User: What shape does this take?
Amino acid sequence: MRARDLAVEFPAVTLDTPALEAARLLAERDLPGLILVDEDARPLSILPGTQVLRLAVPAYCQDDPALARVVDEAHADRFLHRLGGKTVRECLPEQPRELPVTDPEATVLEIAALMARTRSPLVAVMDEKRLIGAVTLQSLLDHALGV
Amino acid sequence: MRARDLAVEFPAVTLDTPALEAARLLAERDLPGLILVDEDARPLSILPGTQVLRLAVPAYCQDDPALARVVDEAHADRFLHRLGGKTVRECLPEQPRELPVTDPEATVLEIAALMARTRSPLVAVMDEKRLIGAVTLQSLLDHALGV
Assistant: This one.
């Protein structure tokens, strides 16, 4: 089995994608992260799901999560409203996560080695010019274990 | 909504759990990681899925994933066999990942703040003595977005 067989279509976002749309993609598609691409659809980085949360959580709560308890339950439930108007550009970590990229011919072992080295549960698969899709840790393990 | 409402039963492993069993749990339950507990079922750390792969991938392939291509496809497909006989103890990173833990009363915002600060898509929920379950980034986003 090769990367081309394991890769699935994967939602990509750009720097200008609304942060709330990124959160919806993560939730609806049950993904560990999103692939950030440039204007020419070339993959740039991974946006981990937890980074989108950072934009929605007030800074004082991130420094001390226990402080979040002073916000009542009803308001806490609506915390994602703070994403309104913000974009993926503002979600990016200061040091963007390395995006492992491989080609369609990569074997299962090669993909596993990339995931192990970069600690990324996601590997982008590119042909010469464009993003074909991605292999997730889940699909790799499912295949390797015959689940 | 509180942590007790969002927490789901979550498979825990110990240092002596076979690595292959950990891989099966990750695959079958579609999880971002596993919770490592001590003999008294108290949570110790998170075992990210990619760490289990590290044990299955020969060191020379992790240093240079392209070298994995010299292994033929049939053998590459069976790379998880290298986990046989190994345990979770051997999978742990040198610097174990911080396990965010909260109590059943934590609000959605408090859980989000913990995930954002620790960059963990998983928060363990404990009552005074034992692990009740965990809240995942997915379940948090599903709730916050009303998916």
Summary: Chain A is about 40% helix and 20% strand. Helices of chain A lie at 3-6, 19-29, 49-56, 59-63, 73-77, 88-91, 108-118, 137-145. The CA atoms of residues 27 and 75 of chain A lie 20 Å apart.
